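testing teh design pipeline on a random one, pls ignore if ur not involved
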């Protein structure tokens, strides 16, 4: 109760650092109450209907989660108890993809009264707090995961052998479990999940398993039955659904938060302005490519759009004037947090400002938490990635890389529209602007699925109008879908 109250009373101005009163902190998950106090933007207002639904969902979780899983999974057919389940399958993707998929599974579970459970052997359960008071979302140790050498890296044995949606349709949904394959590539039968007519029969299946790498929240709004539920949960015209959902459900565990909080308070909190820059290259850069990329990002994006002060030119004040100025005030004006797999981007940015200074003589400091070099998919890297997503989200001004789900998480948490860097491979897009202002803080659904079913074509006028107003293409992915 206390942490929700802390959330409502927060009204910070940019660049204010606020002390957190110890009384409002939940010791099992410090970030839940504190993270909002670090953000430059005022916390997301959570819709009262969503809050109410979240409360009811928590009660359902407490009632159903401590189940006898062998019984649940072996039951021959349809539901006869009131408890239904959703098993979130943690795939071997980057953390950004996994969080987007998790939030989609959670929202679907909320509107279909399914208790969401996650794999306790994997990383997400280790780096995030438990979202429900008095109930755990971790599958228990006695869950029948199967023999380790038989089960694939991702799937519990039971999920691997579960019927998919096509097979469930063939069996008239008389199955105890259905595995929904909702990744970026889908077969025609998997896509049928987004058809209205299969939602009702699916609701009779006791357990669903969700394996995906996409943010399907935008796609849910195209399904008439889901749309009706969702517009009640998220009324009004401001659709910052990621911000609202993550504010309720996603909070870094204490082990990660201690790193985030220490880093923020050591390096970022004391400056007048904070800037976050995420440089995501999708191939390994060679040494000669760092300087040109950083020069372009600085001159054609960060300074030209006033995220950072201009670099010095010959008309700048002299060294003596600079000395006098520094003797009067010692505060760093801008602190820049740089996230990238390649530490060299951070070093090159820092050196550029160190060597040239700024025209206004403002001081800019640069900071980075890690330089992993490549993707490893282990707990250590996932922990660092989560910490960096959160550190980026504290910025007053944000520049993130196109197409990166890592960047989507930070902008969604920050509830801000960042500048999007048009990085192709290890270079910036050669023509036109190298960055542009994002149209929304919502993640882009890279591969929304277009099922071939009548319900996808026959929608009401009201629904059609809503779609016209609130759903659009993505700026960084042709064929993508985004809530606006
Ligand atoms: P995307 O590939 O940019 O869409 O982002 P994902 O988060 O899905 O996958 C990239 C993965 O690479 C992350 O989960 C991290 O493990 C790693 N990674 C990429 N960029 C960074 C970074 O800036 N910092 C850290 N610590 N890890 C990164």
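output:
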């Amino acid at each position: 109760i206390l942490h929700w109250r802390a959330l409502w009373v927060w009204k910070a101005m940019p660049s204010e650092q606020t002390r957190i009163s110890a009384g409002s902190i939940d010791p099992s998950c410090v970030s839940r109450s504190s993270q909002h106090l670090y953000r430059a933007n005022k916390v997301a207002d959570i819709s009262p209907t969503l809050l109410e639904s979240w409360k009811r969902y928590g009660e359902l979780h407490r009632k159903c989660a401590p189940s006898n899983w062998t019984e649940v999974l072996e039951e021959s057919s349809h539901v006869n108890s009131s408890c239904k389940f959703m098993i979130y399958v943690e795939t071997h993707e980057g953390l950004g993809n996994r969080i987007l998929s998790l939030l989609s599974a959670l929202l679907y579970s909320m509107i279909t009264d399914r208790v969401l459970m996650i794999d306790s052997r994997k990383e997400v359960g280790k780096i995030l707090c438990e979202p429900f008071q008095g109930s755990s979302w971790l599958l228990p140790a006695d869950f029948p995961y199967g023999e380790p050498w038989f089960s694939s890296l991702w799937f519990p044995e039971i999920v691997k052998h579960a019927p998919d949606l096509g097979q469930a349709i063939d069996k008239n949904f008389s199955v105890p479990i259905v595995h929904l394959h909702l990744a970026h590539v889908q077969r025609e039968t998997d896509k049928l999940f987004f058809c209205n007519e299969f939602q009702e029969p699916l609701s009779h299946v006791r357990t669903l398993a969700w394996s995906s790498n996409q943010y399907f929240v935008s796609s849910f709004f195209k399904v008439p039955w889901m749309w009706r539920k969702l517009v009640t949960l998220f009324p009004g015209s401001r659709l910052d659904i990621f911000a609202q959902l993550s504010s309720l459900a996603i909070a870094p565990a204490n082990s990660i938060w201690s790193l985030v909080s220490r880093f923020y308070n050591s390096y970022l909190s004391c400056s007048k302005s904070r800037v976050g820059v995420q440089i995501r290259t999708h191939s390994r850069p060679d040494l000669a490519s760092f300087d040109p990329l950083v020069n372009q990002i600085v001159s054609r994006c960060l300074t030209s759009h006033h995220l950072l002060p201009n670099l010095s030119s010959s008309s700048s004040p002299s060294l003596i004037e600079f000395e006098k100025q520094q003797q009067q005030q010692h505060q760093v004006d801008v602190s820049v947090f740089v996230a990238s797999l390649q530490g060299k981007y951070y070093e090159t940015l820092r050196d550029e400002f160190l060597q040239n200074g700024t025209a206004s003589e403002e001081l800019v400091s640069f900071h980075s938490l890690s330089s992993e070099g490549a993707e490893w998919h282990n707990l250590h890297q996932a922990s660092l990635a989560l910490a960096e997503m959160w550190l980026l989200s504290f910025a007053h001004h944000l520049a993130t890389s196109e197409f990166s789900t890592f960047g989507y998480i930070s902008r969604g948490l920050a509830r801000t529209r960042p500048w999007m860097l048009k990085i192709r491979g290890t270079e910036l897009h050669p023509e036109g602007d190298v960055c542009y202002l994002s149209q929304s803080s919502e993640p882009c659904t890279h591969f929304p699925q277009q099922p071939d079913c009548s319900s996808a074509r026959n929608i009401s006028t009201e629904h059609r109008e809503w779609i016209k107003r609130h759903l659009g293409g993505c700026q960084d992915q042709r064929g993508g879908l985004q809530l606006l």
